[in-house]
Specification:
The complex is a heterodimer of chains A (354) and B (347).
Chain A: E1 13-17, E2 23-27, H1 28-50, H2 58-65, H3 71-106, H4 113-116, H5 118-133, H6 137-159, H7 166-190, H8 193-204, H9 212-231, H10 233-239, H11 243-248, H12 253-275, H13 281-293, H14 300-322, H15 329-350
Antiparallel strand pairs in A: 1-2
Helix pairs in contact in A: 1-2, 1-3, 1-14, 2-3, 3-9, 3-12, 3-13, 3-14, 5-6, 5-7, 5-8, 5-12, 6-7, 6-12, 9-12, 13-14, 14-15
Chain B: H1 18-44, H2 52-60, H3 66-99, H4 111-125, H5 131-152, H6 160-184, H7 186-195, H8 205-224, H9 226-232, H10 236-241, H11 246-268, H12 274-286, H13 290-315, H14 323-341
Helix pairs in contact in B: 1-3, 1-13, 2-3, 3-8, 3-11, 3-12, 3-13, 4-5, 4-6, 4-7, 5-6, 5-8, 5-11, 6-7, 8-11, 12-13, 13-14
The chains are: A mainly alpha (354), B mainly alpha (347).
Chain lengths: 354, 347
């Protein structure tokens, strides 16, 4: 295999060519962004593992992860804090990728699962379990998963009319999410105050108390879905040019869209089931990733890394500012997401883009 | 741009033929009759059923019997439903005309989030406990956020997309704050979970008197804006050529919408879909002329709100389902139906 360096273009792309005539375009900037984000997410994870009522230095955390710590550190790191951080990384990654997929499929920067009603669907499922059945944490996860998947299916079917049009998808999602919000409000008024307090923490999205039971299903799901989605990235990129053009270019539009929607719903619903509807990661991660890579495409891999980095950093911020396990991570992501959107609005206006 | 009707229907230069105007006026009269009937039903139906005779007795020959007391209690509730419904309908119609977006909704402009955040602040940090005490806070919160959205949305150069984005962004930040307070303060959670669904249970003489001046002023302002908004519907350039003051009309419309929604939300909590649905339904039979849409919306919105309130009282008897929940459960499917009916090209 020989690497052929192309002329240095403004986008700084490199094409990797094989003697057999196959070639792959490499976006250098996107690669660098992905690597930097991964490094940031892992660094934040190490600091996060060391943070809590029993602080451990970063060096000791690394040593313990390699298997060289004392028994107390081993227990705290491997049994308590590592699974929690892994859930954070996986949930962030799933939400980032799911958000990028939704935004690309609906061709709308607001087309995130927060606004489409998946979060409300999962909340309705979880609240039903909490309020009606007084279920355990495991039951709540199952309820949330069922609710999220059900809402996703309902939105897709209701938006179907000889194909799913992006804008109709967003609007149907807004309608479904309003109905579900009313249902959730009703369930909250019917609950006891203890159940309501439990429900509100869940609805905000929180990582506290997550253990290996949540890690493994998420990990398996990501291991299957992420490669599947990335294989379809080319088709998704072409679909951004419009249905007619991509049809002409040989993309099976409806099939690809259905496949990617299912993947996005599965990713989002399982992430929500594990940590609750953590707000605005799915909305902001793809937008931030796009600004860093300066690439107009779906930016799937950068969004995934950005989601993971964002969630872990938000959790770190919440632990540092409010103290260990005082404030769920969803509060931080919600406030940061809102402020970020406002900043976006002001700067885009100066640039005259909106 | 989401323009609702085809251009040929929007030519408003010639007045409608006399027969059509007569039909519309008759329709308006019929709507008033329906409204009166629904209002009477709202007084008669509930945990204790009253006959129309008892309602009459309570309204006009009040002698302090049990039935009369029930009538007086339900009368305030019905009045609040009438006022708030009219306000939400008018505000929705004005916002839809202003943003030229048939899907515009007060919630979109962050008004609900602003009112909710202000109410939770009042509960937690100012120790306000009575429903009538929240009203000022809720109104102030709604107005402040409305103004903020207007300026962040670009004030004079405001476009529908920018307004919607600004509203979403501010809502997100405020809901984050709201959740943080509810998690740390269980007493606030206990009250907020009832406030945020939206209901007419706060109705009393004092609540109504608090919001009445704002509702009256907003209603007059909104009705007066019918003509300039009609001109704006034709597009900025045509409207300017016709002599409309674009910026003044936009600012006044925003003011009317914020005052109306803010006062209604302050008294009832956030009620969704009334402001979105009714102007839509009305437009399908009045056409695009706001001089008809606004009065129709003002009369038919309370029909929906009071109707939903009565349904909420009947289905969950002897307790009740909050009106905000009923409107969303009725309104959601209607909204989805409307979205599906529109041709893809328009969306």
């Amino acid at each position: 295999m020989k690497t052929n360096r192309a002329e240095r273009s403004p986008r700084a792309n490199r094409a990797v060519r094989t003697p057999g005539g196959l070639s792959v375009r490499l976006d250098v900037r996107a690669l660098v962004v992905v690597l930097l984000l991964l490094a940031a997410a892992l660094a934040a994870s190490v600091v996060l593992i060391g943070t809590g009522d029993f602080p451990i230095s970063a060096g000791d955390v690394l040593k313990t992860l390699m298997g060289g710590g004392n028994a107390g550190q081993e227990f705290i790191v491997n049994e308590l804090r590592l699974p929690r951080v892994l859930v954070g990384l996986l949930v962030g990654a799933s939400l980032g990728l799911g958000g990028a997929l939704f935004q690309a499929v609906s061709r709308n920067p607001l087309g995130s699962p927060d606004i489409l009603g998946l979060g409300q669907g999962a909340t309705a499922g979880a609240l039903t379990v909490i309020v009606v059945f007084s279920g355990s944490a495991g039951d709540i996860t199952v309820g949330a998963l069922v609710g999220g998947l059900g809402a996703g299916l309902a939105i897709y079917l209701l938006a179907w009319k000889q194909g799913v049009h992006g804008y109709r998808l967003v609007l149907v999602g807004i309608g479904v999410s309003a109905i579900l919000t009313a249902v959730n409000g009703y369930l909250l008024t019917k609950s006891t105050i203890t159940e309501a307090a439990q429900a509100v923490v869940w609805m905000t999205g929180s990582l506290s108390g997550r253990d290996w039971e949540q890690v493994w299903p998420l990990l398996w799901l990501c291991a299957v879905l992420v490669p599947l989605v990335l294989c379809n990235a080319r088709a998704l990129r072409m679909m951004e040019m419009g249905d007619d053009v991509s049809n002409a270019l040989g993309v099976r539009v409806e099939r690809t869209r259905a496949l990617l929607m299912v993947a996005a719903v599965l990713l989002t619903a399982s992430a929500t089931a594990a940590a609750g509807p953590v707000g605005f990661v799915a909305l902001t991660a793809p937008q931030l990733a796009r600004r860093l890579t300066r690439s107009p495409g779906p930016n799937l891999l950068p969004s995934l890394c950005m989601g993971a980095a964002l969630l872990v950093m938000a959790d770190l911020l919440s632990q540092k500012v409010f103290g260990a396990d005082q404030m769920p991570v969803g509060v931080v992501t919600g406030v940061l997401g809102g402020v970020y959107l406002l900043w976006l609005l002001v700067t885009e206006r100066k640039a005259g883009r909106i | 741009m989401l323009v609702d009707s085809p251009p040929e229907q929007r030519a408003e230069t010639a007045p409608a033929p006399p027969t059509r105007r007569a039909i519309r006026a008759l329709g308006l009269l019929a709507s008033v009759v329906i409204l009166v009937l629904v209002a009477l039903a709202s007084i008669a139906i509930g945990a204790k059923e009253l006959s129309l005779g008892q309602v009459w007795h309570g309204l006009f020959e009040d002698s302090g019997t049990y039935g009369d007391v029930v009538v007086t209690e339900r009368l305030w509730r019905t009045l609040l439903g009438l006022l708030a419904g009219a306000a939400l309908g008018l505000a929705g119609a004005v916002l839809q005309a202003l943003t030229r977006n048939p899907l515009a909704d007060p919630g979109l402009l962050g008004i609900n989030a602003g009112a909710s955040a202000a109410v939770v602040t009042a509960m937690t940090y100012f120790g306000v406990t009575s429903l009538s005490g929240y009203v000022w806070f809720a109104f102030f919160g709604a107005a402040a956020v409305g103004a903020l959205v207007w300026f962040l949305g670009g004030s004079r150069g405001a476009t529908p997309v920018r307004l919607a984005l600004a509203g979403t962004a501010i809502s997100a930040a405020l809901y984050g704050y709201l959740q943080a307070v509810m998690i740390t303060d269980q007493a606030a959670l206990g009250k907020m979970r009832f406030w945020t669904v939206g209901s007419l249970t706060s109705a009393s003489e004092s609540t109504i008197l608090q919001v009445l001046p704002f509702l009256a002023g907003g209603t007059i302002l909104a009705l007066a804006l019918a003509r300039p908004l009609n001109a704006m519907e034709m597009g900025d350039d045509t409207a300017r050529a016709l002599g409309a003051h674009l910026n003044r009309t936009r600012a006044l419309s925003m003011l009317a919408a914020v005052v109306l929604c803010g006062a209604a939300t302050a008294a009832c909590g956030p009620i969704v879909f009334v402001g979105l649905m009714v102007p839509h339904v009305v437009r399908s039979f009045t056409g695009p002329d706001l001089r008809w849409i606004l009065p129709y919306a003002a009369i038919l919105s309370p029909v929906l709100l009071l109707g939903a309130d009565v349904i909420g009282r009947v289905v969950a008897r002897p307790s009740e389902l909050q009106v905000g929940i009923v409107t969303a459960i009725i309104g959601g499917p209607v909204f989805i139906f409307l979205v599906r009916r529109r041709r893809t090209a328009q969306l």
